[in-house]
């Protein structure tokens, strides 16, 4: 892997960003830190295998409950389409809250597995999150 020196990157910031946006990701070394920077398109490709899985429960009153398997978010609405929209909205809201205090949540052992879903939700609009929700029948 070709590690760029942080000092060189700082001196050539615009060139580095142009290269990342149009050519390839960059790996940067600064003392004891190694970081990668890449475009949102590359991030979306990396996260393409992640989907927002939900268990679907048809309630006695005819409503639909969706439970996001990987994010511990549950919604109940009159029908599946409305439930998926509400779940997508809550996923977006959760991702924004997680990211706003990333230093805390990313270190919480019970939340670390949420990181790829958070970044995926941050890069998509609500409709795209809704389209990426995969519902499977749940069991009571």
Note down, in words, how this protein is organized:
It is a single chain. A hairpin with a 5-residue loop joins strand 4 and strand 5 (64-68). The model has no long low-confidence stretch (mean pLDDT 95). The N and C termini lie far apart (49 Å). This protein has 140 residues and is of the alpha/beta class. The strands form two sheets. It has a four-stranded mixed beta sheet. Strands 1-2-3 form a three-stranded mixed beta sheet. The chain contains seven helices and seven strands; from the N terminus they run βααββαβββααααβ. The longest helix is centred in the middle third of the chain and has 21 residues, at 80-100. It has two domains: 3-38, YefM-like domain (YefM-like fold, 3-Layer(aba) Sandwich); 50-137, Double Stranded RNA Binding Domain. Helix 4 (80-100) packs across helix 6.
